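ok trying again, last paste got cut off:
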Amino acid sequence: MSESLRSSLARFGTGVCVVTVAAADGNHGLTVNAFMAVSLDPPLVLVSISKNARGHGLLEGKPFTVNVLGAEQEAVARHFSGEPHPEAAHWEDGTVAPVLTGTLATFECTPWRAYDGGDHTLFIGEVADFSYRGGAGLGYFYSRYARLEEPTLGVEHIF
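nice, full thing came through this time. structure:
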């Protein structure tokens, strides 16, 4: 059932992010596609991390950054999902957690809550700082990376 369920879930397209965190031995990142906004007041976002992920324990009670990847950053996504491309990852210091340079958006978070989610943990962070730029996004659809084109008129232009 799990393979069939995974194939069914692959029909839902998502964006691709890398969650970054500082540790005693340096900066670490995990590629994720389970990211969402939770609340605007207070500003909260959620990432779902597999309990089997190498970096899972690094997020517990630690500030983290959600880095939304641009379409040109597939090598960054692959690097942090276990396919080494160290030349693709460029770091900078953030306000509360390390940030990857050149991403489409960043959300630097302080830990707010963590919830058991079966074989995952749902980490909710309070957004302490954020930034964004224009450009196409990196998506994931049918278990493949995809380009998400930037619309010519976004919702931020309507309000």
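cool. The helical segments are 2-9, 74-79. The CA atoms of residues 69 and 103 lie 5 Å apart.
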